[in-house]
Design goal:
Layout (H helix, E strand, L loop, with lengths): L3 H36 L12 H30 L1 H4 L5 H35 L2 H20 L2 H8 L2 H22 L1
């Protein structure tokens, strides 16, 4: 019998190609749009120019994630219906779990790559005096509000956790919808 780990690794290799392709496409699209925004008249203001590339990488991240969900659902269904994969001596439940878990793990890998791209594209902004000053002012405001006792109120106003959670749930529902349509 084939082990779950071996099957998981083989299925993950095929999906990892999609992850790398989507990350590259996201980076290229973000670069093109950032350059277009920098050199056009109505694009980014002078204070926003250091973070233009970061903004574009963050803008294209959800689109790449949705594209991965569609590609992964298509690849999963292709593997389910493949006669070659069915010849592997493994139970149907292990085959199903290896296929789905490799898709989920590679989706998380795409998110890690996007976080890395976000950190790298934010580095030029740290060289800008305006951005460093703004970060320092935000830090001072947070420390003042902590001493005033309304830190959590300011925190939840700045970072709407409920909205972020509802967006994440909406994305999960989108993924379930796509998987249910394809299969």
């Amino acid at each position: 019998m084939t082990t779950f780990k071996a099957l998981f690794n083989q299925m993950g290799k095929k999906k990892r190609r999609s992850v790398y392709l989507l990350a590259l496409l996201q980076l290229v699209a973000a670069s093109i749009f950032a350059l277009w925004g920098l050199f056009s008249n109505g694009g980014f203001s002078n204070s926003d120019k250091p973070i233009a590339w970061f903004i574009m990488v963050c803008t294209f991240a959800p689109l790449a994630d949705m594209a991965y969900v569609v590609l992964s659902a298509w690849q999963n269904e292709k593997e389910y219906s493949s006669q070659t994969w069915r010849l592997v001596p493994i139970s149907s439940s292990k085959f199903y779990l290896a296929n789905i878990s490799s898709a989920i793990v590679n989706g998380l890998y795409l998110v890690l790559i996007q976080i890395g791209m976000g950190i790298i594209t934010f580095l030029p902004a740290l060289l800008s005096k305006d951005v460093r000053t703004n970060i320092w002012e935000i830090n001072q405001a947070i420390s003042k509000s902590t001493h005033a006792g309304n830190f959590w109120q300011k925190f939840f106003e700045s970072f709407p956790i409920v909205d972020m959670l509802s967006t994440f749930i909406a994305f999960l529902l989108f993924a379930v919808l796509v998987y249910s349509i394809v299969t």
